Amino acid sequence: MAKQYDVLFRLLMLGDSGVGKTCMLRRFTEGEFDTSHISTIGVDFKMKTLEIDGIKVRVQIWDTAGQERYQTITKQYYRRAQGIVFVYDITNKPSFQHLAKWVSDVDEYAPDMVQRILVGNKSDDEMRRQVTTDQGSKLAETYGMDFFETSASASSNITESFTRVVELVLQAHKRDVDNLFGSLDNHLDNATLEEEKSVKHVDNNTQRTCAC
Ligand SMILES: Nc1nc2c(ncn2[C@@H]2O[C@H](COP(=O)(O)OP(=O)(O)OP(=O)(O)O)[C@@H](O)[C@H]2O)c(=O)[nH]1
Question: Is the reported ipTM for this assembly greater than 0.95?
């Protein structure tokens, strides 16, 4: 069967537990939102195809558990990522303060070329805001990242932020785009297999209950 896309990129979502990573991903890929928080166990992923500058890009987006106890598992995925979405919750200051740790882990474990953006989620919940837009924007500038405030709940800036990180990955690989098409074929096939099998990395001692 003819391939329905030209290249495949892997993106990784990182950030504290409860910032809304799973909800952002579900909003982006399925257009849905769930108000319950059921922590992701280990890692999970969803796929989406975008068309950017005439190139059909299949993105495999890995949703990682924010909980500390899964960090050993989730770090194994850093080195295969081409793009990272760092997420904090604008109503939760500690999730913003912990970004330094998430970023330094990526510096240590991810490839140098990895493209990154910063996202402050839950922008709909203005009443409970603890991190100003200016603080988010300044931190992003310090890290040299593009910045978005999003709401998975109100579906605000979700498509824009994911599209931006994919654009950045595409730009970063532009010089080698011809080679990229060839070299990613294996990845595409593997990804398809992974997709079919719905492989999930779970902690055997814990039941996976994420419904979001
Ligand atoms: N108000 C509001 N709530 C949100 C938004 N996004 C997520 N939530 C809520 O935040 C809670 C946590 O969302 P999740 O997507 O499960 O969080 P997570 O970052 O995936 O958490 P872990 O899997 O534990 O790492 C849920 O109760 C969601 O309904 C948003 O944009 N606005």
Answer: yes
What are the residues whose beta carbons fall under 8 Å from the beta carbon of 200, sequence distance 6 or more? 41, 42, 43, 44, 208
- From first to last of its 212 residues, what are the pLDDT tens digits of the chain? 566 888 899 999 999 999 999 999 999 999 999 888 889 888 899 999 999 988 899 999 999 988 988 888 888 899 999 999 999 999 999 999 999 999 999 999 998 899 999 999 999 999 999 999 999 999 999 999 999 999 999 999 999 999 999 999 999 987 765 565 555 545 544 444 454 444 454 444 333 323 33
Confirm if 118 and 145 have CB atoms less than 8 A apart: yes
Phi, psi dihedrals of residue 171, rounded to the nearest 5°: -60, -40
- The finding on whether 91 has its CB within 6 A of some atom of ligand 1 is no
Question: Residue 98 carries which side chain, given as an amino acid letter?
Answer: H
Cβ of 36 less than 6 Å from ligand 1: yes
CA torsion 168→170→172→175, rounded to 10°? -150
Q: At what angle do helices 21-30 and 158-172 cross, to 10 degrees?
A: 90
Q: Tell me if the domain spanning 7-174 has CATH number 3.40.50.300.
A: yes
Contact 57, 166 (CB under 8 A): yes
**2: region left, alpha or beta (phi > 0 left; psi from -120 to 50 alpha):** beta
**From the CB of 157, is ligand 1 less than 6 Å away?**
no
Measure 21 CA to ligand 1 centroid, in angstroms. Answer: 6
